[in-house]
Design goal:
- Helix content is about 0%, strand content about 45%.
- With about 625 residues, it is an all-beta fold.
- The protein folds into 4 domains: about 250 residues, no CATH class; about 130 residues, Sandwich (Chondroitinase Ac, Chain A, domain 3); about 100 residues, Sandwich (Immunoglobulin-like); about 90 residues, Immunoglobulin-like (Sandwich).
- The longest helix is centred in the middle third of the chain and has 7 residues.
- It starts with 18 loop residues before the first strand and ends with a strand.
- It is built from 2 helices and 43 strands.
- The strands form 10 sheets. It has an 8-stranded antiparallel β-barrel. Strands 15, 18, 19, 20, 22, 23 and 26 form a 7-stranded antiparallel sheet that branches. Strands 16-17-21-25-24 form a 5-stranded antiparallel sheet, with no helix packed on it.
């Protein structure tokens, strides 16, 4: 799975003599707040290299030590090794000098507080390669070193992005993004691509196909301009920002590589928490590497360093707070609403992985199954070698490769109340009204409603106005009007969702302000930003798209495929204030059923730019 799908097309084999880099344009047709073009962003490696080997430029039709590009030559100083670039940057860095100047300029902006695309500058500070995993890019999970199928996944971390703007009174830093990550899937070159370098080349190494890159970072609120913070930093998703990248370069490169591409910036749809550690190499006794904030722990019984010097030992953990998509084994009836992504630059290892589900309310651990999949595959598999530790923990044994992981359950876990919104307002009769919208409910009795004069739940009273639950697996809207005649003033309301098993969950408070008849009403307090929800997702045959806007706007809604091609225009012209709902039946503009896979829905108009990923399963 590629969370936050931001794609860059590339082939990136790298050697000390030459490097080809080809990119097919991926221009996703959506409105993003701002987009830049960067020219001559540099990648490089140390010489001699201290970075992972990927393949040898070895072929029966050319210079060779054994004719096999998948075996590394033992000759010291062999000049035809290929290595992954270790650094990626657009500014000079101590010890990593930029050989050619980097330039950048804004090519499009949709920001209400900026007029035009002039006087911008963007830069990237040093990204480090901290993970590389050889992969079969044609048959996920198969051996990587198969002719015509080889590739790898690379992870660059620790980057910093900065945007500067000169308003005529000097240049200001307006957006500072740190903890940046580039997640790269690389196809190794085809025969035709290698023949551009060596005319006598005979054997394919990989498919030569496009490479996918996901990019994201975290807005540093303290170092960014407040207007830009309001646009890009959403605390609900950890202030994450996504990079939408594209380029059309094709250049010969060597120890240094230069890439020109477009990058758009947009607020992310979900949080990704991340952690990094160094794994002790060649442990004499098992070594524990713990990530308590990410609910996972490793115990390494073996760890072989990566690179020529066998000294690379980074371990990355990405904790994705979104429900994993894809195809699950038939015995799995429910899955956690998040997943882990592990990656490393170790050359080899043996470890166990303990997943801690304390406080997650995921049923009996006796019914848990550990699930994993390659990042290139939609299909999840059960990890058969596992141990139940206790009611909260489960361990995967005998792990020697990393990928994406989550926990499934063979029992149908009660869906929690997924509250899309909870609002309070005053109607024309000066009565307090509540509206709440849920995405899913099962085994729920209904809702009790509490009211207080202060924002303290313990002091609130139960109105004894029980609202029965719809227990719907799709979106459902509830409306409630307080029957009491209330004096003017502020009032606070809570919902208590009551399960059939006697447990409850509270939502709120929301507040209303009642005034005396004849007084001018206070201005509306719009606290909810525009947002988009899709349910069910994945879906088949149809899904409901819910869009919330705080005020009525003129808008349009489109469906795009992964190539950025328009699939369908949904019949939307105006959106009313509040929640608006529309359905997509999986048909394109010609009325034909689209194929299974990933799609995007976009809504934009009057300053509202929303995007969500859709998945159709057959």
């Amino acid at each position: 799975m590629k969370t936050s799908m931001t794609l860059i097309r590339a082939w990136v084999p790298c050697c000390l003599i030459f490097l080809f880099f080809t990119m097919g344009a991926y221009l996703f047709a959506q409105v993003v707040p701002i987009t830049f073009h960067l020219y001559n962003v540099e990648s490089s490696m140390p010489n001699p290299p201290t970075t992972p080997w990927i393949f040898d430029t070895d072929d029966p039709g050319w210079v060779t030590h054994d004719g096999n590009p998948f075996t590394v030559s033992p000759v010291i100083g062999y000049p035809l090794h290929n290595y992954a670039y270790k650094w990626f940057y657009s500014t000079d860095d101590p010890g990593v000098p930029a050989m050619d100047p980097t330039d950048s300029w804004c090519i499009e902006e949709n920001l209400p507080y900026i007029d035009g695309t002039d006087n911008f500058r963007i830069e990237f500070e040093l990204y480090h390669l901290t993970a590389l995993q050889k992969m079969n890019m044609v048959v996920p999970g198969a051996a990587w070193n198969i002719v015509g199928q080889a590739g790898d996944r690379r992870v660059y971390t620790g980057g910093v992005g900065k945007i500067y703007y000169n308003d005529g009174d000097g240049e200001d830093l307006v957006l500072y993004v740190d903890n940046c990550v580039l997640n790269v899937y690389v196809n190794y070159p085809s025969v035709a691509q290698m023949q551009e370098l060596v005319a006598s080349w005979t054997s394919p190494i990989g498919t030569g196909g496009a490479t996918e890159v996901e990019g994201w970072g975290t807005v540093n609120v303290a170092l960014s301009d407040p207007d830009w913070v309001a646009t890009f930093a959403d605390p609900a998703v950890g202030n994450r920002i996504d990079f939408i990248m594209s380029s059309v370069d094709h250049t010969l490169q060597g120890e240094y590589g230069y890439y020109s591409f477009d990058v758009g910036l947009i607020s992310a749809e979900h949080d990704i928490q991340q952690g990094q550690a160094l794994v002790p190499l060649n442990p004499i006794v098992p070594v524990i590497v713990d990530f308590p904030d990410l609910d996972v722990e490793f115990e390494f019984s073996d760890a072989i360093g990566g690179g020529d010097n066998q000294d690379l030992n980074n371990l990355n953990v990405f904790y994705n707070f979104t429900e994993p998509d894809g195809i699950f084994p038939p015995q799995i009836l429910s899955v956690l609403p998040h997943f882990w992504d592990f990656n490393t630059d170790l050359a080899g290892f043996a470890t166990t992985i303990v997943f801690d589900l304390t406080g997650m309310s995921f049923g009996s651990s006796n019914n848990w199954k550990i699930l994993y999949r390659s990042g290139l595959s939609d299909t999840w598999q059960v990890w058969e070698d596992f141990s139940i530790i206790d009611a909260n923990k489960i361990r995967a044994n005998g792990v020697n490769s990393f990928s994406e992981w989550t926990i499934g359950n063979t029992e149908d876990i009660t869906l929690p109340v997924e509250m899309t919104s909870f609002l309070a307002y005053v109607n024309s009769d000066q009565q307090a009204c509540l509206q709440w919208i849920t995405e899913s409910e099962t085994n729920l009795r209904g809702y009790n409603i509490y009211r207080g004069n202060e924002a303290v739940l313990d002091d609130a009273i139960n109105l004894n106005q029980f609202v029965e639950a719809a227990n719907s697996s799709t979106t459902h809207t509830y409306e409630f009007t307080d029957p009491d005649q209330l004096e003017p003033g502020n009032y606070y309301y809570w919902l208590s969702a009551e399960d059939l098993d006697g447990s409850s969950e509270y939502f709120g408070p929301v507040t209303v302000n009642l005034i005396n008849p004849g007084d001018n009403p206070p201005p509306p307090d719009i606290t909810q930003k525009a947002q988009i929800r899709v349910y069910p997702n994945p879906f088949n045959p149809s899904t409901q798209i819910s869009v919330y806007v705080p005020e009525a706007i003129t808008a349009s809604c489109q469906i795009y495929n992964l190539k950025g091609e328009l699939v369908s225009n949904l019949p939307v012209d105006k959106l009313s204030a509040g929640w608006n709902r529309m359905n997509w039946n999986g048909l394109d503009g010609k009325g034909q059923k689209v194929t299974s896979g990933i799609y995007f829905v976009t809504v934009h108009g009057n300053g509202v730019n929303l995007r969500s990923k859709l998945a159709i399963l057959k």
